[in-house]
Design a protein that fits this description.
Helices cover 20% and strands 38% of the residues. The chain is an alpha+beta fold and 348 residues long. The protein has one domain (2-347): Roll (2,3-Dihydroxybiphenyl 1,2-Dioxygenase, domain 1). The strands form two sheets. It has an eight-stranded mixed sheet. Strands 6-7-8-5-9-12-11-10 form an eight-stranded mixed sheet, covered by helices on one side. Mean pLDDT is 84; it is low at 332-347.
């Protein structure tokens, strides 16, 4: 069963610089894990693990050795997982247009957006778009603005009227990913049936001049999908959303093919699951493309679990993660501790 939007993984060219940006500026201040290792040592020793190693060996931009850091935001939301290639320089993801096919950006919850943006500017991080507002399907107003991280990856700060609320201007954890697709109707069907993003929050068309390096006039259709199922016994994160984008004024191109952890930019949508074997089978039955079957993973600090990879209709990677132990703690106790931390922060 898919529980929640767990994390997004992205490549960086300088992990120290990116840590300062995400931890000090955006509030992802709790380090969950950090390790440096060869890829072949991270995956399990079963057949699926060997399949993963074979893929990694045959992919041009995959480095032999990487350094990884994972952070959560004390205000909840999904985690970030940043990775820097150590054995070779990070491959830049290249220029992308608003509506190209692949992971276009990530989104985080914003509290008191009008006060937050000046506070971020005082830290040297200014928005690259003005604040825009859209009407959601339920009649509420969503407001957002975009930043760029040190490698140029767009980060959307999204303010919604839904709880939880925080009395100070702040950035919360990740709430969604922005994904460029080639066929909107096909992708909406896939994310709804296979992954449980089954509620249309809004459906609109327009341009995003500040996010388009070409002529600024590119138009795209955007559909935001939410999950109706609420998280069960897991860390205090929102169910998650995906913001699907399809170009309507030009033909979007794939801009991330063959990169897979060897370059900068967002590389995967990570979903937390229970019963990873059954979930993987159900996701494939619903139309996902198989990639790497369930296998073990060995991280640091006593963290153990299993993961699997599938692809969406455009080849974008979806990771399914089952955490069996985090920091030597079982999931239930870890969830309680994190829930308590969020409540304390919200009341400050």
């Amino acid at each position: 069963m898919i529980e929640v939007f767990n994390h997004t993984g992205f490549g960086v060219s300088d992990i120290e610089r990116s840590t300062r940006f995400y931890s000090k500026t955006l509030g992802f201040s709790v380090k969950v894990d950090e390790f440096e290792d060869d890829y072949k040592n991270i995956v399990g020793d079963d057949a699926a693990g060997e399949s993963a190693r074979e893929f990694l060996r045959s992919t041009p931009y995959v480095p032999e050795r990487i350094k990884v850091r994972m952070f959560i935001n004390p205000l909840g939301g999904a985690m970030i997982e940043m990775a820097q290639p150590i054995s070779q320089p990070a491959h830049p993801h290249g220029e992308q247009r608003w509506g190209d096919i692949g992971f276009l950006g990530m989104g985080a919850k914003a509290y008191r957006l009008d006060d937050l943006l000046p506070a971020l500017e005082r830290k040297g991080v200014g928005p690259v778009t003005p604040v825009t507002a859209v009407k959601a399907a339920n009649g509420s107003t969503w407001r957002s603005a975009f930043l760029r991280d040190p490698d140029g990856t767009p980060v959307e700060l999204l303010e919604t009227p839904e709880p939880p609320h925080y009395r100070k201007p702040a950035v919360g954890g990740l709430s969604h990913l922005l994904i460029g697709v080639s066929d909107m109707d096909r992708s909406v069907d896939f994310y709804s049936r296979a992954l449980g993003f089954d509620v249309v929050a809004f459906d609109s068309e327009g341009a995003a001049p500040a996010l388009d390096p070409s002529d600024g006039e590119s138009r795209a259709r955007t559909v935001v999908l939410e999950r109706s199922r609420r998280p069960g016994n897991t860390l205090p994160r929102e169910p998650g959303m995906v913001r699907l984008v399809q170009a309507t004024s030009f033909e979007g191109k794939h801009f991330q093919e063959g990169i897979f952890w060897g370059g900068t930019g967002i590389l995967e949508l990570g979903l937390e699951v229970t019963d990873i074997d059954g979930t993987y089978s159900r996701v494939l039955e619903a139309g996902a493309e198989p990639f790497i079957g369930p296998t073990g993973m060995r991280l640091s600090r006593g963290t153990l679990g299993r993961f699997a990879y599938t692809r969406d209709p455009d080849g974008n990677l979806v990771e399914l993660t089952q955490m069996d132990r985090t920091w030597f703690l079982p999931p239930g106790l870890m969830a309680f501790m994190n829930s308590l931390m969020v409540k304390v922060r919200l009341l400050r």
